């Protein structure tokens, strides 16, 4: 069963999310909290893609089945652990063959899953759209080591919508000036997609000194 991006965003609050893309694709960017169970791993994805270009779709599908077949038991077993009796949300890159086949495979083992229509690409598109929404920004200023992160955590505990760039950006060095959010180049896709929550009121940390 396919679900729209709106339904996906609602259901993900309660259901586990499985990213069935290759581990390489997952590392390049993924939905926060998603668990990676590749239907095709890095090498298998290359093999299928090569056959698709050189021999056509039919042969590529057969190659995919040949490669995935020996791992199906492990895939289903790992998925059962993640499911823990719950329905699952599944996505690949574009909501195509990988996610649909994955859902069919695990359904034969008694698990129910919903594939995201448009896949990770649709999620990223929605994430980028969210940056265009009107937002009221409040900067929390202070010198390095003054306890801004602790204040943000306390505000978050009280229900405020907080964006802690120090933690959220992970290894990205993000600098804010009073009047602009400086350009971040490059910006990993995970940083963008992790911002999908619709913050209409952001409290942001700002270095000063």
**Sheet with most strands: strand arrangement:** 1-5-4-2-3
The best one-word shape is: elongated
Treating each run of at least 4 consecutive H or I residues as one helix, how many helices? Answer: 10
The CATH topology of the largest domain is what? Oxidized Rhodanese, domain 1
- Our estimate of the beta-strand percent is 5-15%
- Provide the CATH architecture of the largest domain: 3-Layer(aba) Sandwich
Total of domains: 2
Low-confidence stretches: 170-187
The H-and-E topology, N to C, reads as EHEHEHHHEHEHEHHHE
Q: Could you tell me the number of beta strands?
A: 7
Helix content class: 40-55%
Mean pLDDT: 83
Please give the largest β-sheet: 5 strands, parallel
The CATH class of the largest domain: Alpha Beta
Secondary-structure class: alpha/beta
| CATH-assigned homologous superfamily of the largest domain | Rhodanese-like domain
What can you tell me about this protein's structure?
The chain is an alpha/beta fold. It folds into two domains: 2-127, Oxidized Rhodanese, domain 1 (3-Layer(aba) Sandwich), CATH 3.40.250; 133-207, no CATH class. 44% of the residues lie in helices and 14% in strands. The chain has ten helices and seven strands. It has helices at residues 5-11, 23-28, 42-55, 57-68, 72-83, 97-107, 119-130, 148-157, 165-168, 189-193; strands at 2-3, 17-19, 35-36, 88-91, 113-116, 136-142, 201-207. The chain has a five-stranded parallel sheet with strand order 1-5-4-2-3. A two-stranded parallel sheet has the order 6-7. The longest helix is centred in the N-terminal third of the chain and has 14 residues, at 42-55. The termini are far apart.
């Amino acid at each position: 069963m396919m679900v729209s991006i709106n339904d996906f965003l609602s259901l993900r609050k309660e259901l586990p999310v499985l990213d069935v893309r290759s581990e390489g694709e997952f590392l390049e960017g993924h939905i926060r909290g998603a668990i990676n169970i590749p239907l095709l791993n890095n090498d298998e994805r290359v093999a299928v893609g090569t056959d698709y270009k050189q021999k056509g779709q039919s042969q590529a599908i057969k190659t995919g089945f040949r490669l995935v077949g020996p791992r199906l038991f492990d895939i289903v077993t790992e998925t059962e652990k993640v499911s823990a009796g719950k329905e699952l949300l599944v996505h690949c890159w574009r909501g195509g063959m990988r996610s649909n086949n994955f859902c069919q495979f695990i359904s034969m083992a008694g698990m129910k899953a919903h594939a995201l229509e448009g896949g990770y690409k649709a999620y990223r598109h929605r994430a980028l759209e969210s940056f265009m929404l009107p937002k009221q920004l409040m900067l929390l200023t202070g010198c390095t080591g003054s306890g801004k992160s602790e204040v943000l955590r306390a505000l978050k505990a009280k229900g405020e919508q907080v964006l802690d760039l120090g933690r959220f950006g992970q290894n990205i060095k993000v600098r804010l000036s009073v009047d602009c959010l400086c350009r971040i180049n490059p910006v990993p896709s995970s940083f963008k997609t992790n911002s999908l929550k619709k913050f209409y009121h952001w409290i942001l940390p700002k270095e000063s000194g």
